[in-house]
Amino acid sequence: GQSLEQPSEVTAVEGAIVQINCTYQTSGFYGLSWYQQHDGGAPTFLSYNALDGLEETGRFSSFLSRSDSYGYLLLQELQMKDSASYFCAVRSLNTGGFKTIFGAGTRLFVKA
Amino acid sequence: DAGVTQSPTHLIKTRGQQVTLRCSPKSGHDTVSWYQQALGQGPQFIFQYYEEEERQRGNFPDRFSGHQFPNYSSELNVNALLLGDSALYLCASSSTDSPANTGELFFGEGSRLTVL
To answer: Do residue B43 and residue A33 have CB atoms under 8 angstroms apart?
Structure first.
């Protein structure tokens, strides 16, 4: 089967840096994605890692270690608007093609 | 360029009834995936359609079925509704699977189903 684990909640202050970790177990692993979802909104794509290492997109960075089945999302210079739920998602490849499975999400609270 | 559109946005049904939810994918996308999201939880994969066929399926009973039309739009049908089926149903579209792409999913705003 497939499983992903991430913390349920994280709280940080404006301007700070926060790291959201994700560990996964899956067959046919192809890549790890991160999505952001504000209350009442749709999930939106943030980043994707297929290879080991760090990917940077503005204030957000994502890291992957395939050997450790581990990744993280790093948010820098936190802003109030970053308060949202963040989901790691595993993209896997099997006989039926690609499939994306989501974790339970980490709710980030940014305080002034 | 219209993104992913879903209808209806909200609906209320009673136990035992049937429901059909609709999704139009983003222009240029040919793959549609459906997810169920309970309050405070992550999206749970229901199934995926490509070329009018169900290619992948999650751990959902046969009460959940779907269809994809030649224009790539899709429907999700749920029969014999249970209270536990109350959730936000999300449709996500993507382009044809390719090892070169990220598999980025574009989500609609969802259909919120309440079963009484």
So the answer is: no
